[in-house]
Design brief:
By secondary structure, this protein is an alpha+beta fold. The protein has a single domain, classed as Gcn5-related N-acetyltransferase (GNAT) (Aminopeptidase). The chain contains six helices and seven strands, in the order βαααβββαβαββα. A seven-stranded mixed sheet has the order 1-2-3-4-5-7-6, with helices on both faces. α4 links the parallel β4 (84-92) and β5. α1 (11-25) packs antiparallel against α3 and α4 packs antiparallel against α6 (168-176). It comes from Vibrio zhugei. Its EC number is 2.3.-.-.
């Protein structure tokens, strides 16, 4: 298994995994028409744009096995003045979920956060109805302090929970602890 920084030529594979993940896990959250007709093109455009000329505060890691994309994580350093660095995306192929790859990607992204944004907290936003993700972030010690509404690409207003960690070190410590059942 290899973990590496995403390059421009990876955008189609990342977009495909992102769209597949949304189609699989957000069926009852995002609009059906969007998921059936628009999500693939939308994610292609997003990832091509992100990887064409990435901003200095963007970091995208891939986990692969024999060149097969198994998952990715995307962070934006110091994205929010108060909350810090955002884990903007974390997606694992449906066939590889539950194997620790999300945890592995977070662990491997934290050295970048510590190097470039050491005084920054870490946070993420997760759809309230994305129960698997909520459970995962609860298990890795995220503090759920904030809620927000997100206007999704399909136009739906979706309630999200915001999980925070005071620092990359706090998240590193939490993710290294064994997950309880």
């Amino acid at each position: 298994m290899d973990i590496r920084t995403a390059q421009y030529q990876d955008y189609e594979r990342i977009a495909h995994l992102h769209a597949t993940s949304w189609k699989t896990y957000y069926r009852d959250i995002l609009g059906q028409e969007y998921l059936e007709q628009e999500v693939d093109e939308d994610r292609q455009l997003i990832w091509q744009t992100r990887l064409t000329n990435p901003p200095f505060n963007q970091h995208v890691l891939l986990v692969e096995d024999d060149h097969e994309l198994l998952g990715f994580i995307c962070l934006f350093g110091n994205h929010d003045f108060e909350k810090g660095t955002i884990i903007e995306s974390l997606h694992i192929t449906p066939t590889h979920r539950g194997q620790g790859l999300g945890k592995l990607l977070i662990q491997n992204s934290l050295p970048w956060v510590k190097q470039f944004f050491p005084m920054s907290g870490v946070y993420l936003e997760v759809m309230e109805k994305n129960h698997q993700a909520v459970d995962f972030y609860d298990h890795i010690g995220g503090s759920h302090h904030f809620d927000r509404d997100w206007r999704s690409p399909c136009g739906n207003i979706i309630h999200e929970w915001v999980y925070t960690w005071e620092s990359p070190d706090e998240l590193a410590k939490a993710i290294d602890e064994p997950m309880s059942a």
